[in-house]
Amino acid sequence: MLKKDIEKALNEQISIEGSASFLYLSLASWCDTKGFEGSAAFLYQQSDEERMHMLRLFHYINNSGGFAVAPEIKKQNLKIGNLADVFRLVYKSETKVTESVNEMVDLCSRQKDFSTLNFIQWYVSEQYEEEVLMKSIIDKIELVGDDGKGLFMIDQYIKTIRKQPAANPAAAEGDA
Ligand code: OFO
Question: Any idea which architecture 4-70+81-163 has in CATH?
């Protein structure tokens, strides 16, 4: 049975993953309408992935005697000038997710909830991989600056990125 404060924190994590999913959908839309079709495809895929992260939490909470709550969709006012801005927003969102995952780890350790601690480890690995990937994309975009040809090439490269979810034994548990 989940402790109330663990259930609350897991539900907050659902909300954070849901926000990331919708943020990536908005960013995909921007890319789609600016000719960055590779980045759009990548971000649509990332948006789906974040939804899966959310569902994984849903199943875990409900399977553990808690009650998973669907998050509210908040309107996003984004200021995007170029492709670098898009991936800076992605990176910022990922660091926010990482912070909250780390807080979950801390809470589970303090509460000695080793089952949830084990479950949340998958997110720790996933976040590490996401941050490294997004940072490497930003580095490449910054290398070419405003050069149209360079941005086109990078967009083509981004299209080829097929991220594998983090490998962790806990991944199978509560898998959506
Ligand atoms: Fe689920 O936020 Fe990153 O992966």
Answer: Up-down Bundle (1.20)
